[in-house]
């Protein structure tokens, strides 16, 4: 009894010390909204205990999880600094750094405003109804002091009543939050307004859902369904690392996308899409994707992704694991949680295969290269992107499928990709607390599988060979069937859009008739074989593969005739079917992979 009492006293002392420490953080932010209707955030940053002659104050240039230099400093206005004796000189030394000559003032008070009017999961947005603060674009940090703790006080605008964030409350202080360092602060988005908040508990973790923008969602259904996803994903890793988790959901007339954070996520959704079953399952897939990042990326991560350099690109060739594997698991989680039937899951997977294999860039760029080039390509697509590159999301998901089925087959159903993810999490996050290298991930996968993955890496990760779907799906007694194989409709190889009665080319596919003949993006198609074009698709359908046509175009106002030889449409349209008379091993692999119930096996 005495030992229990002693432990309780010690816990209370430690709690009190922690609370005092948090209240005495050297850096304190205060956020206000004096003109929310004009989309401004007013920030005051107070640094105490300063002993330096100069302080460099920096705004991050990008947001972790979104691999593009976004130049958040462009939104900063009216930066000023003051010490105990008044205003301090400020010089801007580069795009995102303000140098303050402090005169060794022990307290430095900094004020600035941020214009916030970009709707996305990675950028801040403020209007008269609410504020979404994406921290990397709001909070600055003193150079060299990323590890410093800070507090954030939020002053609510008129009519606002709620704050949703993964940050911890400072005890005894209303609307004030504590962050142990800037990495945590930058990984903790903040929603301020009058959002609809509800909660559920799953895997022993309290989950808060903040719904912004209204919608036709059913809270009780969401609580139950989101909990199923949480529990399925937690079962893979055997541990849920949070005590509390926050979903911030922005509902728009048409919305989508998500961004993962350490103990929260931001999701975009369609306001009235919850009553439509396809749209609803799409939302659950987004929940599954971002929640899986709780382990994969936020903790189990490539070595380059933390500690972060917030000024520059953080290059890694492993986003095909970080994002691609997560994209594989999001749909697989819907299958395991019985939101998808086995047939629906295989249809979704076939759609993913269609997308990748019909993209010419899949033969040009390896998925490891796509990962490394994310900073200049993934978020900056142009009219030729489909010809020159591939998404590490889509292709990475297919490589995950390859590895999963290879492991299940090699171990005769004893193990799968889950075992690789858990072993990597245990080793590199829990034990070593560091990121993994490409070689370390490959080594772990080979250890679990009991076989070499050289071919997978040489051909599919670092190469551009077509995945051997016959072999891979064959492990599960399945086959890929091209349902477009018997068709011979003519094909031009250009996508177009119509506006103001004009038909304009948007994209030209590599090695297509349009590509070979020299049709360009932005060309206006006027006529074919002397006849005015009003419906390009219909006019082409009246021709045959092998026909030569003359296309009259307007290119920058200059009329030009281009001769073109129509070809058979080479587009693939796959579906996944079961083979006849599968072996016992194939059935075992299929059952393990798709988590088949006895009813599923019999159907």
Task: Describe the 3D structure.
The protein is α+β, with helices and mostly antiparallel strands. The protein has four domains: 21-193, Immunoglobulin-like, CATH 2.60.40.3650; 195-282, Zincin-like, CATH 3.30.2010; 295-476 and 581-603, Neutral Protease, domain 2 (Orthogonal Bundle), CATH 1.10.390.10; 490-568, Pdz3 Domain. The protein contains 17 helices and 31 strands. The strands form seven sheets. The protein has an eight-stranded mixed β-sheet. Strands 24, 25, 26, 27, 28 and 29 form a six-stranded antiparallel β-sheet that branches. A five-stranded mixed β-sheet has the order 17-18-19-21-20, covered by helices on one side. Helix 3 runs parallel beside helix 4 and helix 5 (319-336) runs antiparallel to helix 6. The chain starts with a helix and ends with a helix.
Sum this structure up briefly.
With 603 residues, the protein is of the alpha+beta class.
Largest sheet: 8 strands, mixed
Which whole number gives the mean pLDDT? Answer: 94
Total number of helices: 17
Termini separation comes to 60 Å
Strands of the biggest beta sheet: in what spatial order? 5-4-8-2-1-12-15-14
Which helices and strands appear, and what pairs or packs with what?
Elements lengths: L1 H22 L3 E6 L7 E9 L5 E5 L17 E8 L2 E2 L2 E5 L2 E5 L5 E9 L9 E2 L4 E3 L7 E2 L7 E5 L7 E4 L2 E2 L6 E4 L2 H5 L3 E4 L2 E7 L2 E8 L6 H19 L6 E9 L5 E3 L3 E7 L6 H16 L26 H18 L5 H16 L9 H6 L12 H4 L3 H19 L6 H15 L6 H12 L4 H8 L7 H6 L3 E5 L7 E2 L2 E6 L2 E7 L4 H5 L6 E5 L2 E2 L3 H6 L6 E8 L2 E8 L1 E2 L5 E5 L5 H11 L3 H5 L1
Parallel strand pairs: 1-12, 18-19, 19-21
Antiparallel strand pairs: 1-2, 2-8, 3-7, 3-11, 4-5, 4-8, 6-7, 9-10, 10-16, 12-15, 13-16, 14-15, 17-18, 20-21, 22-31, 23-30, 24-25, 25-26, 26-27, 26-28, 28-29
Helix pairs in contact: 3-4, 4-5, 5-6, 5-9, 6-9, 9-16, 10-11
């Amino acid at each position: 009894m005495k030992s229990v009492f002693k432990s309780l006293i010690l816990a209370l002392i430690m709690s009190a010390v922690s609370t005092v420490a948090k209240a005495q953080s050297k850096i304190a932010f205060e956020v206000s909204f004096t003109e929310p209707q004009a989309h401004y955030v007013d920030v005051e940053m107070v640094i105490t205990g300063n002993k330096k002659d100069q302080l460099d104050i920096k705004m991050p240039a990008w947001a972790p999880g979104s691999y593009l230099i976004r130049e958040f400093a462009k939104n900063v206005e009216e930066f000023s600094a003051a010490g105990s004796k008044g205003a301090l000189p400020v010089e801007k030394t580069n795009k995102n750094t303000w140098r303050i000559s402090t005169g060794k003032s022990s307290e430095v008070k900094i004020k600035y405003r941020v214009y916030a009017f970009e709707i996305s999961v990675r950028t801040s947005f403020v209007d008269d109804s609410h504020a979404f603060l994406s921290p990397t674009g709001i909070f600055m940090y003193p150079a060299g002091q990323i590890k410093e703790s800070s507090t954030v006080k939020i002053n609510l605008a008129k009519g606002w009543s709620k704050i949703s964030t993964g940050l911890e409350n400072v005890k005894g202080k209303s609307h004030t939050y504590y962050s142990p360092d800037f990495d945590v602060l930058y990984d903790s988005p903040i929603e301020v307004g009058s959002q609809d908040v509800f909660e559920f508990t799953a895997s022993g973790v309290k989950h808060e859902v903040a719904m912004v923008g209204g919608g036709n969602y059913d809270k009780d259904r969401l609580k139950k369904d989101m909990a199923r996803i949480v529990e399925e994903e937690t079962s893979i890793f055997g541990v849920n690392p949070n005590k509390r988790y926050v979903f911030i959901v922005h509902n728009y007339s048409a919305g989508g996308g998500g961004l993962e954070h350490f103990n929260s996520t931001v999701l975009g959704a369609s306001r009235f899409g919850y009553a439509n079953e396809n749209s609803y399952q799409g939302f659950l897939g987004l929940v599954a994707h971002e929640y899986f990042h709780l382990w994969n990326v936020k903790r189990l991560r490539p070595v380059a992704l933390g500690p972060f350099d917030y000024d520059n690109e953080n290059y890694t060739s492993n986003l095909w694991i970080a994002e691609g594997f997560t994209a594989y698991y999001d749909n697989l989680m819907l299958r395991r949680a019985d939101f998808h039937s086995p047939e629906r899951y295989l249809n979704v997977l076939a759609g993913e295969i269609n997308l990748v294999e019909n993209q010419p860039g899949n033969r040009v760029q390896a998925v490891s290269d796509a990962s490394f080039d994310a900073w200049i390509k993934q978020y900056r697509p142009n009219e030729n992107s489909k010809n020159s590159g591939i998404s590490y999301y889509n292709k990475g998901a297919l490589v995950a499928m390859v590895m999963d089925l290879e492991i299940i087959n090699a171990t005769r159903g004893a193990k799968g990709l889950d075992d690789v993810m858990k072993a990597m999490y245990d080793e590199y996050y829990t034990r070593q607390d560091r990121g993994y290298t490409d070689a370390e991930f490959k080594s772990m996968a080979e250890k679990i599988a009991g076989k070499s993955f050289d071919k997978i890496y040489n051909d599919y990760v670092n190469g551009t060979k077509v995945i051997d779907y016959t072999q891979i799906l064959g492990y599960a007694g399945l086959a890929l069937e091209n349902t477009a194989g018997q068709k011979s409709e003519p094909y031009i190889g250009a996508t177009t859009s119509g506006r103001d009665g004009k038909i304009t080319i948007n994209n030209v596919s590599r090695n297509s008739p349009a590509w070979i003949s020299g049709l360009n993006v932005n060309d206006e198609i006027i006529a074919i074989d002397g006849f005015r074009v009003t419906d390009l698709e219909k006019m082409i359908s009246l021709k045959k593969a092998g026909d030569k046509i003359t296309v009259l175009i307007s290119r920058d106002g200059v009329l030009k005739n281009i001769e073109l030889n129509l070809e058979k449409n080479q587009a693939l349209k796959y579906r996944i079917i079961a083979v006849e008379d599968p072996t016992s091993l194939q059935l075992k692999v299929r059952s393990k992979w798709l988590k088949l119930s006895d009813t599923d096996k019999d159907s």
